[in-house]
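Long-time lurker. I teach an intro course on protein structure, and each term I like to show students one example going from raw sequence to a predicted 3D structure in C-alpha cell notation. This year I'd like something fresh instead of my usual example. Would anyone be willing to generate the C-alpha cells for the chain below so I can use it in lecture? Attribution to the forum is fine with me.
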Amino acid sequence: MSRTSIRAPPPPSRGIAMHPLYYYLHFAESPAGSPHMPSPDTLAILLTHLPTFPESKSLQYGPLCVHPNASCAFATFPPMQSISFEDANGDPFLTVRNPDGCTILDVNRALGDLVPRGIEQLDLALAHYRELLFTSGLSSAQFAEHISRDRGFLDDHEYPFLQELVAQA
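-- Reply from a regular --
Happy to contribute to a lecture. Here you go:
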C-alpha cells in the first residue's frame, strides 16, 4: 500500500460522508496548494495499532482498539454495511463489511492488514516500543507480556512486531 494507492471511499457523488476520525487516523495532510485529495499514511495506520500510555511522548492516537467510543463510531454517515476501497485507477481492492454498519475499527483493522511488514514499518514499531519500554522500567520480556495482556475492549487485538522486540532482547 503506497501513499498514492488508495483514495477515500466512497465517491462524494453518493452523498456519503466519512467520519472525521477516519481521516485523522489514516491519512496524511495534503501539501499546501495541492488539491484536497487525502493521501493514505501507512505509518500513521500502523501507529493506531501500537500500544501507548499517558506518559508516552508519542502524540499518536493509539491503540484504537482500547477506545470503544472512537472504535465503535460508524465510519460513514449514513452507516453502511459495506465500504469498498478503490485504487488510483478506480479499481476496488478492499471491501470492509459489518452487517451492523462499518465502524472506524473495522476500517482501521482492514487498512492495518494492508500495511507492509517491511524495514521502515519494523523500525517505526521498534522505536515506539523502545520508548515505551524505557519509560516502563520493565525488561523487554516483561514489557511484551504486560502489553500483550491488554487486547482491547473486544479482547482480540494483537500488537504488530511485538515478538521482534522480545527476539532482540
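Some talking points for your students: The two ends are 30 Å apart (CA to CA). Strands lie at 17-18, 27-28, 39-40, 76-77, 82-86, 92-97.
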